[in-house]
Amino acid sequence: MGIEGVGFVTGRSLAAQFRTLDALLAAAPEQIAETPGVGPKLAARIVEHRQKSGAFRSTQELMSVKGIGEKNFAKLEAL
Q1: Which of 28, 24, 18, 12 is nearest to 68 (CA)?
Q2: What secondary structure letter does DSSP report for 1?
Q3: Is 10 helix (H, G, I), strand (E, B) or coil?
Q4: Three-state SS for 37?
Q5: What digits encode the pLDDT tens for the residues 13-23?
Q6: Measured between alpha carbons, how far is 10 from 78 in angstroms, rounded to an integer?
Q7: How crowded is residue 25: how many other Cβ atoms within 10 Å of its Cβ?
Q8: What is the greatest pairwise CA distance in the chain?
Q9: Angle at 67 (CA atoms; ends 66, 71), nearest 5 degrees
Q10: Alpha helices in the chain (DSSP H)
Q11: Secondary structure of residue 28 in the 3-state scheme
């Protein structure tokens, strides 16, 4: 499964393959869950938020997802 702006390369960690946090936010739950610091439950909440509210308008909007505060956001942003 591909995402526009993201090139997947076998043998690299999934997080290393996302070029931007925006691309991560458009990913499938399984792909999001493989990101360091994000498990299946948080990935599901990210996707649920995206389905209810539409696409994230900014990366900072990610902090409106339960379980992502400033500390977790900073870790994701550093990917």
Answers
A1: 24
A2: -
A3: coil
A4: coil
A5: 445 555 567 67
A6: 22
A7: 22
A8: 34
A9: 130
A10: 14-17, 21-25, 29-33, 40-53, 70-77
A11: coil
Contacts (Cβ under 8 Å, ≥6 apart) of 52? none
21 and 76 Cβ atoms separated by less than 8 Å: yes
The amino acid present at 75, given as its one-letter code, is K
pTM: 0.69
pLDDT tens-digit profile of 9-62? 334 444 555 556 767 777 888 888 888 888 899 999 999 998 898 887 888 888
Q: For 3, list phi and psi in degrees, rounded to 5.
A: -130, 135
Q: Give dist(CA 48, CA 42) in Å, integer.
A: 10
Residue with tokens 């960690």: 13
- 23: CB partners within 8 A, 6+ apart: 3, 4, 5, 6
CB 68 within 8 A of CB 35: no
Query: Could you give the CA distance from residue 10 to residue 73 in angstroms, rounded to a whole number?
Result: 27
